[in-house]
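Hi Y.,

Following your request, here is the sequence exactly as I used it, all 635 residues.
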Amino acid sequence: MAASSIKINMYRSVLWRKSLFNKVLSNQKRLSSSLFNDHKINTDNYYRYGRQEKTFCFSSRRKTNSESFNTEENSSSSSKFTDKQVNEKLLHFRQKLSQGPSMVDFLSSENNNNMETGTDDTIPYLPASVFKGQKRKVYFETYGCQMNVNDTEIVWAILKENGFVRTLKIKESDVIFVMTCAIREGAEKKIWKRLEYFKFLKKSKRKKIDMKIGILGCMAERLKTKIIEQEKMVDIVCGPDAYRDLPRLLSVTNTGQAAVNVMLSMDETYADIMPIRMDNEKKSAYVSIMRGCDNMCTYCIVPFTRGKERSRPVESILEEIRQLSDQGIKEVTLLGQNVNSYRDMTNWKFHGGYDSLDIVPGFSTVYKPKTGGQRFADLLDKVSLIDPEIRIRFTSPHPKDFPDAVLQLINERPNICKQIHLPAQSGNDEVLERMRRGYNRESYLNLVAHIRNVIPGVYLSSDFIAGFCGETEAAHNDTLTLIRDVGYHFAYMFPYSMRQKTRAYHRMVDDVPDDVKARRHSELMETTREIVLKLNTQQIGQTQIVLIEGPSKRSPLDVAGRNDGNTKVILPQTEIPYFGETMTQHKTAMKPGDYVAVQVTDCSSQVLKAIPLYHTTLKNSFGFGKENQMCRVSS
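Below is the corresponding structure, written out as tokens. Let me know if you'd prefer a different format.
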């Protein structure tokens, strides 16, 4: 009995499933037929079809009462189409799809530039005048690295486009923006003191429009809660990736609220914004080529305040430098938190280029090897060809990203300065491992020897940290011996200050007393000065090319400039001839932007002193032949 009962139940289940399947199939055929019978199909419909089951499922717009139809009429219309006709219509639809754009059309940047997306970023319920500056005066103060200087120029370009004007007098300003630095505690202390003054100025000022104070940059991202909620000093807090939002943030403050945007971006490079230089008299300029850092050194807060690495498209960089050339700029510094790890992935044609072989032997990274894209050597090559009379520098690099392609290019091109910044941070292997630098003392020294072999006479500079977590006296002495062994022409040195969010903050102990840090810092500076003085003394009697920057700060009778190694050179202001094919008798005074041949006569650990010989150009100075002369890259 039990067995027969089970068989009966199984049979009933099979019949029920078969019946249900037939009903579903019948409904799908009916819907398919009604779909092709209805000629009002538009883009509001979403449909998909199976490859083997001859089904066609869709969801169309909701019909009104006037569009409703009864079941009998619909079933009668469904009989007009056979399976063969349905298949023919499906085939026709597939043929239309095959004639459309392929995946390559969406990957290609050239085609993307010509495609209209139809997006509109405007807010329909707010008039455009809400975000306009209405000629309000903005005052800027900038602290920190060259990247912050460039960021200030980007902010000024955005605000000027929206109707703000700039003032150099703080007491006349309606808006004060402070571009901040969070790398070291000392920089933050200076900014806190300035904010106290700004707060006093705001309270004492009596105007129809209240003064607004804004914090921009790295400190804004790191201390947003303290700045807004605890201290209540400022009206705006804007991170490094949110500068485009400043006009809206300023409009929010008009209602008495504080405005904050510190969101980090995966792709923001401000590539479409042409920075407006803060000092038009200068003949040098900064050009940002990438933002962020992936190295995650344990002491460094940059990955947390600037985000992940992303690079500007090559063409946008070249166009900016062409414009700077037209403005008479004579020196361009390419900027990035890890500038020589530049990798432009915007053009699909360069996907799959040379890859992790770029990493210097003996060096490693904490991230997976990256492949493809146009690399720093590709960019440096194109930048150096734009104008042979523009000197090219770059900072700040990481030692791991110096392949031979970059070194050989520096040696070959006269307008790429023979000066490399090579941050070491420490000369002790254990400290370097705790810092997670990705190299040891031996591999670093091998790289220095290789660079000097490829680029004879190269100028080297570096960074050092005194008193990092766990640093012993022996480790400190290793750093002193590294400075002596390498022989740097310049070095930045700072006592270690622990930063929140970093790996050292969470995993290590800041166990070196402040007085010990100060002593070690002083010893690093004294050792460096001794080495620099020896190297500068060796240059006495040499003829060098100097780019004139302007009057000396110490004497109106002198002018100051910089040589190829970025060392400051002081010259007496006098009239000198111009050297072309022959020495001319007509003499002219030296002015900013002139290249002058000088003879070094004296020095200190800080500057070289020289006498000017004649005006010159980079092409004449380095003996360009006609076959070797560089031509301007066409736009």
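Residues 568 and 606 are 7 Å apart (CA to CA).

Thanks again,
Q.
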